[in-house]
Every structure is written in C-alpha cells, then in structure tokens.
User: What shape does this take?
Amino acid sequence: MKSILTLLLMGIAAQAASVPSMGLEELVDRSEAIVHGRVVRSWSAWDDAHKYIWTHHLIAVIDRVRGAGAGMVVASEPGGELGGVGMRVSGAVEYGVGEEAILFLYRTPVGYLRATGHGQGKYTVTPEMRVRANLKGLDLLKVNAARGADLSSLDGLTVADFKARVRETMRGRR
Assistant: This one.
C-alpha cells in the first residue's frame, strides 16, 4: 500500500505546479520574514494531524532583512519521506544542507514558515555571491500584472545589489 501511495504522489509531482507570477513588491508584501542564511539541517515530520509530511530546514541567519529573529529560522515545505512513506508535492522548494540562500517566507495556516510564491521566494546564493532564482517545477502564470519589478530581472544580481533592491522596495511600501 505504501509503495502505491508513493508512486501516485510521485506521478502527481512530475507535473509542474501552476502558480501566479509575482513581482518584487508583491513578494515583499506577502512575506512575514526575509532572511539571508545557510541551511544547517533538514528533517521530515508529520504535521500535527498526522495527515501530511513536511520537510523542515533549519536556517542559520546571516542577515535578517525583515522579521524572524537573529540566529535561526525554520523554513518548511510540504513533502518528504518518513517511515517508508514518501510524499511529493509539485512546486515544493528544495533545500540542501550547506546551501546559502535569501528566503522570502510567509506563515502557512498550520503555522510553518514557507517560501512565498513557491520557488519565487527562494534565491540561491552562488559561490560568486550572486543570486539565482529557484523556479524548477513551476509554471508561472501571468494572471494579473505583477506588482513591482519582474523577478526575472533580479536573477544574477550580486547579493549586495539584490538586498539593496529588496530594502528599497520595503521602504517604498511603508
């Protein structure tokens, strides 16, 4: 039974997640926390209702841009593997231990912080200190005009320039 469930969920995950595209203003507005950090540990666990598996990632904060106290923050994404049961969710953001990223996080109804706009809320920091968007598995829909700078225009900026743009956008939103 477990292998059938895993195969079914993996088949669903093979499809791209269709999500509305966001602009920088919208990404900032919808994010409770914005942090630059490094993934130090990941683990999977059932939610409180024992209905869904979530994978949690402990992030050591390098720079707190908004919200979330200094030190550590946990970013969570639906899906994972636990006790021989696997659950995959299309569009769920992937993290790797040791990875450095800038994260835009919103609070889910179950209380977890998750990447805003799916992969649109995670920018991997390269060894050259540039940001790279994480849009793998996403089909961005241009439903309405996105508010703010097109996120694709931010891909490849230096970390310093990227954070300056985010902070400038935050100042303009007050």
